[in-house]
Amino acid sequence: TPDSHVSRDPRLIRLTGVHPFNCEATLTELFKEGFLTSPELFYVRNHGPVPEVQDEDIPDWEFSVEGLVANPLKIKLKELLSNYENVTCPITLVCAGNRRKEQNVVRKSKGFSWGPAGVSTALFTGVVMRDVLERAKPLRKARYVCMEGADKLPNGYYGTSVKLNWAMDPNRGIMLAHGMNGEPLTPDHGKPLRAVIPGQIGGRSVKWLKKLIITAEPSDNWYHIYDNRVLPTMVDPDEAAKNKDWWMDERYAIYDLSPNSVTAVPAHDERLELATAPEYYNVQGYAYSGGGRRITRVQISLDQGKSWRFGNIEYAEDKYRDFEDKQLFGGRLDMDWRETCFCWCFWKLNILVEELKEAKDIIVRAMDESMNVQPRDMYWSVLGMMNNPWFRVAIHNER
Ligand code: MTE
């Protein structure tokens, strides 16, 4: 296959055929990893072949900054390391297709079936994109940063865009990353250079980055237009194929993630041996939201949503905010001046085993600081993206 130069962990579950490579860990394995996901279990979403880059060629990997700028640039990776300040920041990436399987069960969408493990977290090291753009000097009419990767696909190179003012806002943490958990990026995750756009769907974080093109309009790349959108729910696959206009509406493009939460312990359909269990069972899961917004409530129901109780939330990323050694993996730990939340959090709740014995399922829903909530009902759309209704695990009691 085209990816024969890439080695991969057998614990990853393939979601599509042999090629391209798309995979997630089981939720149980992912959750066991804790706050930081190792590169081997980090979910992978590739639209095509992984570009092959030899280690000795990494320093000379070059990307350009062009378009509406006064000072177009060509920058080599070694120059990013020596001529710019490098920072390190924990960031969670989430595929917009995370939890799509639940949509496909209700009605087949045009996407493959992600479970709830299309989400992972790493300490990314690189340069704040703003520092690069400031040297390129965007012109007055510039409004978007288009990004293009080196992976050649049936419809051209993978590319997309974000707003220029987001890239210029340090609180959005948009960066050009070359490292992940203290190691160089692995081939599947963009070796040697990728954009990382915190708080937004993974599809905006372009891997194998070759170009930043500053424009007055959003990207016209095929993958920007025909991917990563939530079309109105009545647009079915036939209608979406017939009528191009649905795709041309930039209002349907997804940027910020929405609040989401899942239960990892117990696993869906797990048989619980409650007869011999201690007094309490510790239910656990993850939650995240978008746009730097913090998850402020996680609620759990054992009676199909009639009543709710609070889970205890642990914000593991906060420990990096008062980290003693402000240098980490060759980058300044870039958290102290951020009010924003770029990572998933974990929640826990002790439930009396006597209560759990009576329950058929466990439902969880989260809310963020803007009071955005997970809906009770699913919003089906043709690409099956941004699926975030209440998450339900069925449980079975061994009596
Ligand atoms: N960048 C390039 N060049 N090609 C791609 O196929 N996939 C995007 C994004 N960047 C993609 C890309 C999508 S849809 C996602 S969700 C993330 O990369 C996945 O990043 P990961 O594989 O490192 O988890």
List the defining traits of the structure above.
mainly beta; Sulfite Oxidase, Chain A, domain 2; Immunoglobulin-like; 2 domains; seven-stranded mixed β-sheet; 9 helices; binds ligand MTE
Provide structural commentary:
- The structure is a single chain.
- By secondary structure, the chain is mostly beta strands.
- It folds into two domains: 13-252, Sulfite Oxidase, Chain A, domain 2 (Alpha-Beta Complex), CATH 3.90.420.10; 260-397, Immunoglobulin-like.
- Helices cover 13% and strands 32% of the residues.
- The chain contains nine helices and 24 strands.
- The strands form five sheets. Strands 6, 7, 10, 11, 12, 20 and 21 form a seven-stranded mixed sheet that branches. Strands 5-4-13-8-9 form a five-stranded mixed sheet. Strands 15-24-23-17-18 form a five-stranded mixed sheet, with no helix packed on it.
- It is globular and about 70 Å long.
- The mean pLDDT is 96.
- Residues 42-47, 93, 95, 149, 151, 158, 188-189, 202-203, 205-208 line the site of ligand MTE.
- Ligand MTE is lined by residues 42-47, 93, 95, 149, 151, 158, 188-189, 202-203, 205-208.
- Mo-molybdopterin binds at residue 95.
